Amino acid sequence: MSAREWIGKDFYRELGVSSDATADEIKKAYRKLAKENHPDANAGNAQAEQKFKAVSEAYGVLSDASKRKEYDEARRLFGGGGGFNFPGGGGTGSFDMGDIFGQAGAGQQGGFGGLGDILGGIFGRGRSSAGATANRPQRGADVETDVRIDFTEAVKGATLPLRLSSPATCATCHGNGARPGTSPRTCPTCSGSGLVSRSQGAFAFSEPCRDCRGRGTIIDDPCPECGGEGISTRTRTLTVRIPPGVDDDQRIRLAGQGEPGRGGAQAGDLYVRVHVAPHALFGRKGLDLTITVPVDFTELTLGTTITVPTLEAKVSLKVPPGTASGRVLRVRGKGIAKRDGSQGDLLVTLQAAIPAKLDDKAREALQAYAEAMAGHDPRPEITELLQGR
């Protein structure tokens, strides 16, 4: 989308957020609306499809800090609806003269490429032709989607098919927006520049051409698939490689798999957000796997050897005599292995298992043990404190 096309659109209203919304609020609003209007959940619903496109377009601008800053600046200058805000003029608000006279250098990058390019020839100080700016290629917006994997796939890595419905270059018109066999024609109003000059009192400035919406061309016979937009929503299947050791809520970037660019520019990127299902036995701390193993009181007291599961097999683990409940034993090299060679361990927490009921024989044995340990105080510090009071 060209910078001039931003001016007449209210991306904040599309997402239902205020202009001072935080990045998290914008992301949350986008996810909610994208889910509600996703083509997969609204088959044949053209209105939902258009809404899905609109919120994706809005998120593509507002989620990018530099694009959002430029968009907000344009709204401030143009009043959010195409009218220029001169002090005492027809618009409401004000503008900083430095934004006009303090033009950025010719090498500036960004969605606007300098406000002088958008305003064209304000006060006769436009630095470049309006036509060059109107037809400047625009990188495609980034797209985000979600996948859910199980715990083992997150640890070992996986290759998954991803079915994605998203805006893409129209396969029927190949992106030019015209019905096959026809071509767009140069707009006679702006002569293909996408901008027209307009006077307001003593000032003259340029604004997007209303006849061609700033594109510089007019499509007399729109493509039946995309309606002249050059972009349509299509379903495609991609192969996503989940690296070993991926974290829950981590994003994986697929370069060039986002929305197509305009005017021959590169496509945006696709970000796949990974959600990892919890495991019934194992947990995770960084590259270490964790597991809690119940053990009998006598095993902790007398010592024993227990068998502990891993994600791949099982290992034998020696419990020293006199081990306290809650102690963590480490099994080297049985955690998560990443491609860079880093390796985690398995952390085994020993937890004393207390029986809920005892038979007569077990109760007599415990009572005899209690009598034998009558002189042992397991809480000497507490006993000393209580006696001192």
TrEMBL record:
Ranges for the CR-type domain? 157-235
The record's annotation in SUPFAM superfamilies points to:
Chaperone J-domain, DnaJ/Hsp40 cysteine-rich domain, HSP40/DnaJ peptide-binding domain
Say which family it is in. Answer: Belongs to the DnaJ family.
The record's listing under HAMAP family reads: DnaJ
Q: Taking the first listed entry, what is the main subcellular location of this protein, grouped into a coarse class?
A: cytoplasm
The molecule here is called Chaperone protein DnaJ
**Locate the J domain: which residues?**
10-75
- Give me the gene this protein comes from: dnaJ
Compartment(s) of residence: Cytoplasm
Q: Which Gene3D superfamilies match?
A: DnaJ domain, Heat shock protein DnaJ, cysteine-rich domain, Urease metallochaperone UreE, N-terminal domain
Listed cofactors: Zn(2+)
| Residue span, Cytochrome c domain | 152-374
What are the start and end residues of each CXXCXGXG motif repeat? Answer: 170-177, 187-194, 209-216, 223-230
- InterPro entries hit by this protein: Cyt_c-like_dom (IPR009056), DnaJ (IPR012724), DnaJ_C (IPR002939), DnaJ_domain (IPR001623), HSP40/DnaJ_pept-bd (IPR008971), HSP_DnaJ_Cys-rich_dom (IPR001305), HSP_DnaJ_Cys-rich_dom_sf (IPR036410), J_dom_sf (IPR036869)
What interactions and quaternary structure are annotated? Homodimer.
Residues where Zn(2+) 1 binds: C170, C173, C223, C226
Zn-finger (CR-type) intervals are 157-235
Protein role: Participates actively in the response to hyperosmotic and heat shock by preventing the aggregation of stress-denatured proteins and by disaggregating proteins, also in an autonomous, DnaK-independent fashion. Unfolded proteins bind initially to DnaJ; upon interaction with the DnaJ-bound protein, DnaK hydrolyzes its bound ATP, resulting in the formation of a stable complex. GrpE releases ADP from DnaK; ATP binding to DnaK triggers the release of the substrate protein, thus completing the reaction cycle.
The text the record gives for the protein's domains is: The J domain is necessary and sufficient to stimulate DnaK ATPase activity. Zinc center 1 plays an important role in the autonomous, DnaK-independent chaperone activity of DnaJ. Zinc center 2 is essential for interaction with DnaK and for DnaJ activity.
Q: Where does Zn(2+) 2 bind?
A: C187, C190, C209, C212
One Pfam family hit: DnaJ_CXXCXGXG
Could you list this entry's UniProt keywords, alphabetically sorted. Chaperone, Cytoplasm, DNA replication, Heme, Iron, Metal-binding, Repeat, Stress response, Zinc, Zinc-finger
The cofactor note from the UniProt entry for this protein is: Binds 2 Zn(2+) ions per monomer.
